[in-house]
Batch of 2 targets.
Target 1
Amino acid sequence: MRVVILESSESVTQFAADEVCALLKERNAKGFGAVLGLATGGTPLGLYRELIARNARREITFANVETFNLDEYVGVPPDSPCSYHYYMLENLFQHIDIDLAMTHVPITHGVELQKSAEAFELQIEQAGGIDLQILGIGSDAHIGFNEIGSSLGSRTRVKTLTERTRQDNARYFGSIDDVPQTALTMGIQTILESQSILLLATGTGKAKAIRDTVEGPITASVPASALQLHPNVTLAIDRDAASGLANADYFLAAERNRAVASRSS
Ligand code: PGA
């Protein structure tokens, strides 16, 4: 795993935006559109603001980009401000030159959920797979809504949210009683099939989850620890989120060496 420890949440935003832009430009140069996996929550908001700004300055285009979001609540209609459909429109899609028909957020309203899950998996396959999956991480180390105990071989399906996740997300709903009990989420295996993965984390509230993800054993009790199995994962985290790492000095040294190597190449 590449662990990039950055000074601030703003540096995490800039790092993530640079990674996404590099992919979009590389694909554009080859005449392909990139396939991006997207996340919701508080952490990627800075990244989305930065992508909107770079798109407005015409540094990047989303014209041929296809996107797949990690998850959506069950029981929240897509036009509700609490839905992830709404979040994506509000925070990214309506501000960039993307074709909305190329954006996919799991559908949980007015459908049979298992069929919707299977259709979502098929759409990812038909797109040729995800090139770069952006992830946040829950304070309990969930990725997507793959909560503790999620099979490391899981695919898109309905998951019950933990009490902790519902508490963490109650801020968007007004009251914890209004937070749904379940969500449709990409599975851990679905996520692991992405070509590359970029996990973003900021703040001390994520420090334990990051330590367990990077330095703990691979276990379904820490769903993000499954990322240790992936050959191309980058964690971009601020100092607070890195504060629980025993090997932080090693990761900082590895990045210094990477910078030296890239200057001399
Ligand atoms: P957050 O959520 O970015 O709002 O902290 C992350 C997550 O639950 O995956």
Note: Residues 82 and 174 are 10 Å apart (CA to CA).
Target 2
Amino acid sequence: MARDGAIHACQSCGAVHAKWSGQCAACGAWNSLAEEVVTRPPGALAPTRGSKARGLAFEGLEAHSPAPPRIVTGIEEFDRVCGGGVVPGSAILLAGDPGVGKSTLLLQVCAQAAMRGAACAYISGEEAVEQIRARAHRMGLAAAPIRLAAETALRDIVDALKREALDLVVIDSVQTLWSDAHEAGPGSVTQVRACVGELVRLAKRRGVGVLMVGHVTKDGQIAGPRVVEHMVDAVLSFEGERGYPFRILRGAKNRFGATDEIGVFEMGDAGLAEVRNPSALFLNEGGERSAGAAVFAGIEGSRPVLVEFQALVAPSVYGTPRRAVVGWDGGRLAMVMAVLEARCGLGFAARDVYLNVAGGLRISEPAADLAAAAALASSALGAALPQDCVVFGEISLSGDVRPVSRMEMRLKEAAKLGFRRALVPGGPEGPPGVALTRVTRLAEAMAHIGDATWDLGAP
Ligand code: TYD
Ligand code: MG
């Protein structure tokens, strides 16, 4: 029977185990199990006999009242990823590594929405009010009418939210919240789940948009955002490579919009600046394109983005050759290398292979296969691709190059940025000024690379 007692909860995925072990059997994380005391919430799991259930009133699909308009913050890159602004009464979790800029982004979102007339509050459990104020001043947001508070006690936060008529509330972060209904410490799975659950209920009941920060954690000390993903309406992840100023906002789950949109920001001295036209951002500008580089014409969400794939294939000095990849999927790299080896005779045994997507972007489209293959072959053969050439296409295990979606949009963007040639699968005509080299087999594409007769005719 339900008794108060100790459980062992994985702080990474939230799975509950009866006994401690070094590795979570559910998600495979090491050292992530922590003992937590669960207290049964009053009323939960109580015997149902003679209970005072209130019965359920069903409703139809026809609308009784028009849905309230979304809260538009005016930060377009953020609004678009949300699906056109924040839906009143929705709960959004912003997940990201510590230091990536989550507090900065949400402070800007909060301030901009407030300047457009929404009633906004920013509640931080990590920084003092004075610190937040200083940061807002530095970012030029001193005039924004937002309400600030530094608080971690859930009871006080909920109480305040019930009293004030707010449109938008930022909670930074869910791992600092603490509910006195539970004995477990702040940041534990039990606490994080209980607090987020309470805030989600409050959001729905009072129609306020709740934006919550969740730190992605590497060790098992505090619960990660994954343990509450199922409770919120949207999960946005905020990513950025260390050493690059670019930050990408991506929808991982969204009940009110598409999840393939990205928002691009640049971190500067005055906070995050929107990057409205990111297509040329990830290109290595200037100079000749060297061997091992291929420009991929990709699509992120609804926008085309051109990005350089850089490969290095070098003799290995180790017994087991190294394969390292940044910004792309390691499994996909292994597949492309296997196809190059099996279908084109390009061997990688005893050679180290490094693949890097420039600018800190993460590419997940299968359309990037051909660009990766071209970069690898270009490095292996020591032959540079033409400076003004873009590449895209999906590669199958049989060595075919398959057409990809939105080819015209990719080619149009390439043409706009001055590219005059494209190595592509069969499909629609390109825009004027871009000469297409169509390939249906990977081997054909490889024959073009390093081929002195890489002459695509007059555009
Ligand atoms: P922060 O929003 O505090 O990160 P998070 O809440 O995700 O932990 O951002 C921290 C980093 O951002 C910090 O290393 C400094 C940098 N930063 C700037 O470069 N410019 C700025 O204007 C601000 C506010 C922060
Ligand atoms: Mg922060």
Note: Residues 102-103, 126, 172 surround magnesium ion (ligand 2) (CB under 6 Å).
